[in-house]
Amino acid sequence: MAILASVGSAQALDGREAGLQATHQALNRLGANAPTLAIVISSHQYQPREVLNGVSSLVGDTPMIGYSSPAGLTHQGQHPHSVVVALLSGDFQSETMWLPGYAQSGRETASKIETHVSARAERQSVLFFADGFNGDAEQFCNAISTDLNIIGGLSSGDLHTGNTYQITGNQTGTGGLVAALLRGNIKIGVGTDHGWDPVGSQLRVTRSRGFWLRTLDGRPASESYASLFGYPARDWAFPPLSYLARLYPLGVEQNEGLVVRAPIRVEADGSFRMNAAIRDGIDAYLLVGSRAACETAARNAAQQAIRQLGDSKPALVLVLVDVAWQMLLKAQPGAEITAIQEILGENVPIAGGYTLGQVTTADENSKPKFLNQHIVVIAFGEA
Length: 383
Description:
The protein is an alpha+beta fold. The chain is built from nine helices and 25 strands.
């Protein structure tokens, strides 16, 4: 049986109605085929329990995972204040997990996934969504073994309040991780890239503690940015400048080269709240993105995903995009989808949303990597 897919999207006054309408659309497009997995991307402005009730009232016990995003994405572009529902149907098996302890320990969460996966001899792929404001994604990635294909994103929402959530078939909440374990007649191709480049401004990380980047070049991080951009340091803790910090991330030196690390927000004391730790004493470079570079990155990621599928045709493409792209492409919302369609054509169903970080696995001999500022294109096809 071939892999089939459909996508629906809807806007409504409440989450239940939006979830109901989006699911109804997706089911109609799927026809007589029963869904094997539902993927939900919901506006953070909706109540998660309402969204869950709306979707599950139509798909019943179908395994489901989802996350909050400032806007949804489909083949039609960007959909603010919406619910997007993607349905996959085929001769494969899906099983979901709700792991509420992710914010307390990424290591223990990874261990629970691996224990569950190892109970079956058949190779599985894991698609997950985790809290983007709470939890250590790098610790989670480092605790995963090298023979597990794991892909996912960190849920996003209001950067100022930290409002975000995750959804499974019977659970919603914050601080958790939801995962779909996929096995059987399904193949996944993944591509990733970003559109940010160094501009020459080199900074030294002089004090960093956990997720808080305290000082750059011996002064509060916001003062270093204030000297570069000309705005008072005290204003960087509040919108719109607190969002601007996300648009201008840092490229930090690590073993594999320059790694993008972006602030989630600017704290009142001038430090940057990151979602990955940065070591003291390393060099960092200011990065700048552009629409053209992001469109090129989106095309590159789509090409990589299609190459990984090989002879299999994509039935569905899931797009996980860093929230900085939404800010950068504000004048051209959905430009990343248009770029992807230049590679895929216009007939492949697309669903997606914005994230605060992305996780991909290069191959079965590699550990997963935690990324900022990237686009991840995930293509599902028949094995």
